[in-house]
Design brief:
Radius of gyration: 14 Å
Largest sheet: 2 strands, antiparallel
Number of strands: 4
Helix content: 10-25%
Structural class: alpha+beta
Length: about 70
């Protein structure tokens, strides 16, 4: 799908390589985790977070749902 992420901030562009996974049993801990899910799939996301997160992980959540705050 894509191999890199670029973020522009303060006149600078920050880049990172990206790994896309579809099976939580095939991932290892990551420093940065971008979790995008619909609200009704929050419980299923737990298996992913258990495999991916470690004490120093940074997690960004983008969730879609009714009245999401």
């Amino acid at each position: 799908p894509f191999a890199a992420l670029a973020v522009q901030s303060g006149g600078a562009t920050l880049g990172a390589t990206v790994a896309v996974a579809t099976d939580p049993t095939r991932v290892s801990p990551a420093d940065w985790i971008f979790l995008a899910t619909k609200a009704q799939h929050t419980a299923e996301a737990a298996a992913w977070l258990k495999r991916l997160a470690h004490r120093g992980s940074r997690v960004v959540v983008a969730q879609n749902g009714v009245a999401q705050e």
